[in-house]
Amino acid sequence: MKWMRLMPLMLGVILVILSAKPLFAAGNETYIGSRVNHQFKFDHIYVNFMELGKVEILGRGTPIPVDHISVENELSDGKERQAIQTMAEYVSMNQQPNGDRLTYTRTYKWAGQIIEIADQFQAGEFNSSTREQVNLHMSINHKDWSVEGPVLVRPFFLDDNRYHGYFGVLTVKEKGREKLVIIQRTSGTAFTPDKNLSWRILSIDSQGQVQEDRFTYDELSEVPQRVNMINITSASPFSLGYRSNILFVWPSLLFPLAYPIGTAIVGLLLVIIGLVKGLRHYRK
Questions:
Q1: Distance separating alpha carbons of residues 283 and 260, to the nearest angstrom
Q2: pLDDT tens digits, one per residue of 109-128
Q3: pLDDT mean over 88-116
Q4: Distance in angstroms (rounded) separating the CA atoms of residues 52 and 108
Q5: 183 or 7: which carries more pLDDT confidence?
Q6: Strands 137-140 and 113-122, how do they pair?
Q7: Going by C-beta distance under 8 Å and a sequence separation of 6 or more, which residues neighbour residue 133?
Q8: pLDDT tier for residue 13 given thresholds of 50, 70 and 90
Q9: For residue 101, which of 81, 74, 80, 78 has the smallest C-alpha distance?
């Protein structure tokens, strides 16, 4: 029967159509990522990793020391501000008999610019699981750039783990020009749907000019490099895609091997078989 001869072709077309949308989405994510990484060079700036006062770029095997950026760590009880030289010293300084709140200040210096990040926490004993909800105080060249929007601080750490998920620093190069970039999650600490997430990015050039960019989850794709900055600094509760999160789905035999890759291959084979059979029948 005629419809039986068309079965492979029809089934193949259906499988290809069903597979097209996720394959296109994955391909589009790859294309946008390639374009952004060709235009920009991103380096996540780590500080105090293994050694206080050390600035490095991690994630490329051996840590790469950064000479043109410095960091200083200080602790204040509201009366005096003391430099922190070692972790042991930091722990000792926290053992306040009256249990006052202390202020930790981290100062970045880059290209003559001074960036201060500070948070308050309760003095005493704490461990890696201790969290405090506070507002970050931020100043650039002594001008206040703080915003409302609490973050979770881990007072046990002085490296990037202290503000993990909420704050990060990186350098961004475009056409040979470098900027120091600060990214902060501003949507608070409460569990919230994706659409309620928000961030701000402060870009500082070597002349001290600051550009602020505030945006929500729904506005991410308008400027694709925002996604790279958030993912590199882990300033999000999960990894983000440019237009979809399809590349961050946990892989399994079902997805993406069986669907959409497997269904697309089978669909194409059926289309080819159907066309060959149809052509042979037409010639006869």
A1: 34
A2: 999 999 999 999 988 888 89
A3: 89
A4: 13
A5: 183
A6: antiparallel
A7: 150, 151, 152, 153, 189
A8: confident
A9: 78
Nearest to 183 by CA among 197, 198, 168: 168
Coil, strand or helix at 133:
strand
Task: Find residue 163's DSSP bridge partners.
Answer: none
pTM metric for this prediction: 0.87
Helices (H), the chain: 2-39, 87-94, 225-233, 263-283
DSSP string, 142-171: TEE---S--EEE-TT-SSGGGGTTTEEEEE
∠ at Cα 236 (155, 142), nearest 5°? 60
Do the beta carbons of residue 107 and residue 114 sit within 8 Å? yes
Contacts of residue 278, defined as CB under 8 A and 6 or more positions apart, other chains included, come to 5, 6, 9
Residue 1 reports pLDDT greater than 60: no
What DSSP element (H or E) covers 258?
none
For residue 258, the Cα-to-chain-centroid distance in whole angstroms is 30
Contact 81, 208 (CB under 8 A): no
Asked if pLDDT for residue 230 goes beyond 80, the answer is yes
Amino acid letter, residue 278: G
Q: What is the DSSP string of 185-227?
A: E-S-SS---GGG-EEEEEEE-TT--EEEEEEEGGGGGGSTHHH
**What distance in Å separates the CA atoms of residue 23 and residue 268, rounded to the nearest whole number?**
14
> For residue 199, which phi and psi values (nearest 5 degrees)?
-145, 170
Gyration radius of the chain over CA positions: 26
**Which amino acid type is present at position 272?**
I
Query: Residue type at 146?
Result: S
